[in-house]
Design goal:
The chain is α/β, with parallel strands linked by helices. It has 4 domains: 2-25 and 177-320, MoaB/Mog-like domain (Molybdenum Cofactor Biosythetic Enzyme, Chain A, 3-Layer(aba) Sandwich), CATH 3.40.980; 28-50 and 142-175, Molybdopterin biosynthesis moea protein, domain 2, CATH 3.90.105; 55-138, Molybdopterin biosynthesis moeA protein, domain 3 (Beta Complex), CATH 2.170.190; 327-395, MoeA, C-terminal, domain IV (Beta-clip, Beta Barrel), CATH 2.40.340.10. 19% of the residues lie in helices and 32% in strands. The protein has helices at residues 8-18, 159-167, 206-216, 231-244, 261-266, 301-320, 366-369, and strands at residues 2-6, 28-31, 44-45, 55-56, 60-63, 73-81, 95-98, 110-113, 117-119, 124-127, 137-138, 149-151, 172-175, 180-186, 190-191, 202-203, 220-227, 247-251, 272-276, 278-279, 283-289, 292-297, 327-331, 336-337, 343-351, 354-357, 374-378, 384-385, 390-395. It has a 7-stranded mixed sheet, sandwiched between helices. A 6-stranded mixed sheet has the order 8-5-7-6-10-9, with no helix packed on it. α1 (8-18) packs across α6 (301-320) and α3 runs parallel beside α6. The model has no long low-confidence stretch (mean pLDDT 96). The structure holds adenosine monophosphate and magnesium ion (MG). Magnesium ion binds at residues 186-187, 252-253, 299.
Amino acid sequence: MTSGRRSVEEHEQHVAALLRPLHEKNTSRVPLAHALHRTLAENIDAPIDLPPFRNSQMDGYAVRADDLSSTPAILPVQGVLAAGDAVAALAPGHALKIMTGAPVPDGADAVIPVEDTRIDGAGSVVLERRVTPGTYVREAGTDVRAGEPLLPAGTVLAARHIAALAAVGLTAVPVRPRPRVAIISTGSELVTAGGELGPGQIFNSNGPALAASASANGADVVDVDHCHDDPDEFVKMLDHAVKVADLVLTSGGVSKGDFEVVKDTLGPRGGEFVSVAMQPGGPQGTAVIDGVPILTFPGNPVSALVSFEVFARPALRAAAGYPPAPSRIVPLTADLTSVADRRQFLRGRLDENGVTPFRGHGSHLVAGLATADVLLDIPADITSLEAGDLVKVLIL
Ligand code: AMP
Ligand code: MG
């Protein structure tokens, strides 16, 4: 089915509704080694105290503060405690040499750093100053107590969270599922990097780019393939993709040419191909095959990535439990003009002065795209803006 021009907002809502089933997958448990960038599905309480036992914050001497009531105090050294040793007992009037992380002995209540001490001729430690109880002693449970909240559900796990989970001895955590995404690039001109470019051929950049975009936004990329503009080959690839993925992204083959393999194949299978009032990325399509949603993006590399940013990124992030992609309102550093009646997404660069839009608008400029770090989001009803005007930018 083909219908008329659709606004970006309408198509966003259509895509969001199509991709809502991605949110309903069950929680899974993953080992900590695979938990980076996953989203916690449940609150995690600390199963043990941190620190688990009272230990020394310094290399030095464990003492009883009362034994230093008159200084200098000269205390015989009872022995040495290394990190990993079991807890010992400090005899009255003695000091125990202790290393950072070793259990503070029973009876001791302070640690004197080694640099504040000296050893006399008889092997006793000489302490020149008094010390308050608790000095350089890390008490059990002062970081977090057993049973207290450690990390809330919804936390997107970074290295610091993995540290906390490992510190309390957890080996696996419940996480939100990652949507499985398959990517099919179409075009008889495409060659996978590593192959030889023949006449009229180009390397496939959309496949790797969309795979990277999907992974960066919480998806598990399960299949990346490309096919010629051949309906039989495309159908075969699609049949496989819908078996292994929760969402299929395609690029190319949705315009008005003679060999539009995506449109020609999916159109008769209930696909909907529309012209969205945006630039780049106007030709958009959606379909559902065997219950699996398919988003079809145009083939120009800039159009494909803008399509991903506008339509796939928000839905994938929501499904993975990620916060919305960042955007900012910033001043323009230069005047710009924009097409009438289309929401325009211009490549630009952000610095402390604001955003500078690129001059070359061609959707094929893939090397140029690599130098952009934002998309300026110019509303459909705006045709010109001046330096200093505020614009919304989507952070790439
Ligand atoms: P299409 O949307 O199939 O008409 O393609 C539009 C333009 O994008 C053509 O110049 C294609 O060669 C180019 N193109 C299509 N797919 C890719 C791809 N996967 N990687 C790089 N360029 C592509
Ligand atoms: Mg094509």
